[in-house]
Specification:
The structure is a homodimer.
Chain A: H1 10-17, H2 21-29, H3 36-49, H4 55-62, E1 67-72, H5 80-93, E2 97-102, H6 107-119, E3 124-128, E4 144-147, E5 157-161, H7 163-176, E6 181-185, H8 192-208, E7 211-212, H9 223-234, E8 247-250, H10 253-265, E9 275-277, H11 283-286, E10 295-297, H12 300-315, E11 322-326, E12 329-331, H13 334-337
Chain A binds a DNA duplex through helix 2 and helix 4.
Chain lengths: ~350, ~350
DNA sequence: GGAAACTAGGAATCCGTTTTCCTTACGGTA
DNA sequence: TACCGTAAGGAAAACGGATTCCTAGTTTCC
């Protein structure tokens, strides 16, 4: 029984193909000058043995680790998880492995992880976080791309969701349905996801002839606040009274779901009386809501994928600078159109 | 500008401490014979420079990569994510890094990831999945621990949630509140999470003098099915009629939340008329439900942590065999007690 | 038949830590 | 005083397998 059984080395491939290890290397990497027949023979031998070049040894010559770090400060992972998965997905295509490092919102822990990634000589790092608020950059001697949570340094490469585009799409959708008087309900007022979406909605409505009714409402990111906010919007409205709005735009699906529940409790029909929209396209909220929510899918997996692409380019010597916007997708459901 | 700036090598520490690299190694690893004063001086120098031994070089001598693979077949990550995070957390303590490999329920992709992990010479692999149903083992030349989804081979080391203990705790809780006639609503009938929980509930109730009313109801893991199942349990019950049950045990918080909504719609008070329990302690469901759900927290982070401990022991030459049960925790909220 | 072009093998290279082996110095004992 | 044992620390090899020069052998074309 050989030690580390099952591990195929380049010499094993060389033996099976009847050539030297260096020939195998050239055949598999499309370098040197070899007869096509030899190349094919080596390829077939490698295929048959399931040969995968040893990453450690490879990194010796290449002076690269073929590894990138995924540094996440979001332990819960509701937002960073899709980003991380999207990035990981894009990386495996390039024979790159992903080292996971979760710091659960703790600066000391994050510093520890950063040092660990540096010790592993990762080729680059993707940093992601809990919110779209800017975060302090990390100091490392390799390329970094910030995903979802941009760096505070505008010269760093960041990829963030294009919330303005999402809100503009929602506004256009509502106006196309004839809705004009729109209320906005945000989450925490100190977060960009609340304030930026409000500003974008206000601008989009104004430009197209809609009206943003009342001041924006900020609270917390919970269904409970969604319900409370509906009471604030409706005031002492009684069934039959004219409604102060014909649409409510919530800054998250969770808020919107709570809002729908409260509207129904108070006898307001969704969407006949008031159209409702959410944000995030979080299936367990958007689909379980009654009615299901028209919302915006920020396509975080694509965002993570894009971050990985930028990182790979940076590793190959072509670094990006500045913040790139990742496009969202409008998802229309019954809470605005009443279908189904 | 030195190349790879910021990277501190053992020679840098040696220079600062005025000793040779080998002395630094001995001082930091507590080997060889050195004067305590020398040891302390080296330690201080390493501390000051923030020296972290190069993992690649380290693995050369140690013939270990100090890396483990986290192989997940669950892309959505609702269940595997806490497991992965718990495991990763336990690993960083041991200076071990975690390579993330997500296979999104695709055998070809999984095989690809397995080969990649083998190529990286990981010291071990933690395999996790979407359900608690047993899965085929992977064939690799290093230790493996299966977390959440056990291996089909009973000789492999697996850690799974102790659903029977969770259901027993729920049954005892309900009986202590005077509930006797209990209905059970499961998710998909072909999954262990549905059937095993049903069997455990039936056994626990029978042993303690409760009654499981009617056949178990199986459907899908959605709020919608939770609502439908309530209709099946209540039949053509009208407000005022005697109720066929005084408690409904749902196999997930999602089901239970839907169930609560439907019960309220039909004028049945929770928990005064019917107590309701969920499973999973998924906060966005259990806390947002009206009323908040009494449920069972499977403590998946602890499960992942335990899997990591077992893996580290196996790497150190002390492998475990068989399936270990990870204990859950009963979480009591208003859906049974009516507080709040 | 000879020279150029091509093919493939041998051996050195890549990296920083660990570990083995050895030297030096010092103290104790004969 | 000479010799030996031991502590302390340095020098150099080992660790690992893919890659890449460099060179020798082989084919091909004129």
């Amino acid at each position: 029984m050989a030690e580390t059984p099952g591990v195929v080395r380049i010499t094993d491939v060389a033996a099976l193909a009847g050539v030297s290890p260096s020939t195998v290397s050239k055949a598999l990497n499309d370098t040197g000058s070899l007869r096509p027949a030899t190349r094919a023979r080596v390829r077939e031998a490698a295929e048959r043995l399931g040969f995968v070049p040893d990453a450690q040894a490879r990194s010796l010559s290449a002076r690269r680790s073929f590894t990138v770090g995924l540094l996440s400060t979001d332990s819960a992972g509701r937002f960073s998880l899709p980003v991380v998965l999207g990035a990981e997905n894009a990386l495996v295509g390039g024979q790159i492995s992903a080292l996971l490092a979760t710091a659960r919102h703790d600066a000391v822990r994050e510093q520890h992880h950063v040092r660990s990634l540096v010790a592993r000589r990762v080729d680059g790092i993707i940093v992601t976080g809990r919110t779209t608020d800017a975060r302090p950059p990390i100091q490392v001697p390799m390329p970094v791309v910030y995903a979802f949570s941009p760096s505070q340094d505008p010269r760093d490469a960041s990829v963030v969701p294009d919330d303005a585009a999402g809100m503009t799409a929602l506004a256009a959708h509502l106006l196309s349905l004839g809705r004009r008087r729109v209320a906005y309900v945000g989450g925490r007022g100190d977060q960009a996801a609340s304030t930026l979406r409000h500003a974008a909605l206000a601008a989009a409505l104004e430009e197209r002839g809609g009206t943003l009714v009342g001041e924006p409402l900020f609270g917390e990111w919970s269904e409970r606040w969604g319900r409370l906010a509906v009471d604030l919007v409706l005031g002492d409205h009684a069934p039959g009274d004219p409604l102060p709005v014909d649409a409510v735009v919530f800054a998250s699906d969770q808020l919107a779901r709570g809002g729908c529940d409260r509207l129904r409790d108070r006898g307001v029909r969704v969407p006949q009386d008031v159209a409702v929209t959410g944000y995030d396209d979080w299936d367990v909220m958007a689909l379980a809501s009654r009615p299901p929510l028209t919302t915006v899918d920020p396509q975080l997996d694509r965002l993570g994928q894009r971050a990985a692409e930028l990182l790979l380019a940076a590793i190959d010597g072509d670094p990006a600078h500045g913040t790139e916007l990742s496009p969202p997708r409008l998802v229309v459901r019954a809470s605005t159109t009443g279908d189904a």
